[in-house]
Each structure stands twice: as C-alpha cells, then as structure tokens.
Amino acid sequence: MTPMRLELSCQVNQDFLKVKAGFNESLFAKLSPPFPPVNLVRYDGSETGDMVSMELNFFFFKQKWTSTITDNHTNSKEYYFVDEGVELPFFLKSWKHKHRIIKEGSSTIIRDEIEFKAPFGLLSLLLYPALYIQFAYRKPIYKKVFA
Question: Which domain of life does this protein belong to (predicted)?
C-alpha cells in the first residue's frame, strides 16, 4: 500500500525567518495535543541529524516515538525540515513529515506535509481523520504564537 498523505496549511502574520526561529522546543511543547499526553524525552532541534523523541501516554500503556531530521533547507522564500520516524508507536509502520515555512508577502504559510503508513491498510484509513484532527489542532496555536 502506498503511504497516506495529509496536508494542512496555516497563514500567520509574521516574517518567515521569525517563524523559522520560533520552531523550537517551546513551540513543540505547545503543539502537543491534549490526548495522548506527550512527554518530551529528547529534542535536539531541526537540523539534519537531530533527533526528537517522545513518549505518548495512552494511560494503560505508553508508546515511544523517535524521529530523525533527515533534511533541512533555507532559501529566500522558504525554510523546511523533514522528520522521519525511526521508532514508531505500534499503529504506525512509517512516518515522514515535511514542515514547510513559506514566505507569502509579509506573512508566512506554515504547511505540514505528512506521509504515513499503518501496519495494514484499513488502519491507515482509520488513522487519517485522527491525524487530521491532531494537526488541525495546531492552527490556532500557530496563529497565537506568531501573531
């Protein structure tokens, strides 16, 4: 099965280089949804080779999620970095997330481009709306942080 694709965008009224500078551990903590609660175990940053590791608490059990930053780039119109899962919760077989910060005049578009696979096709379909909600949750946080 080919990976499922999910894309969400949010426009904020801030220069894209300021938004880039704001993509840090503090923002990561603010973006964590209420469920499942997330315990950040490691946060190196968003440069190629950096790692981010967290523990998802599903109350009756916990799952570790570790990603490595496999690519990042900045030019005059865009900054992006890509995280890929190396240790994923049981419900994911693969994860690739491109975080794009795109200059749009005097404002910025923050775009999440995600490819994921579950261990079997039906679970991928079931995960899609849950992941969509998790990432839609970020939009008002982005607007508040980058106001």
Answer: Bacteria
As to burial, measured by CB atoms within 10 angstroms (0-12 exposed, 13-18 middle, 19+ buried), residue 146 is buried
91, burial (CB in 10 Å: exposed 0-12, middle 13-18, buried 19+):
middle
Give me the pLDDT at residue 85, please: 97
Strand partners, 53: 42, 66
- Neighbour count for residue 72 (Cβ, 10 Å): 17
Which CATH architecture group holds 4-145? 2-Layer Sandwich (3.30)
- pTM score of the predicted model: 0.92
Query: What pLDDT shows up at residue 84?
Result: 98
d(CA 144, CA 70): 28
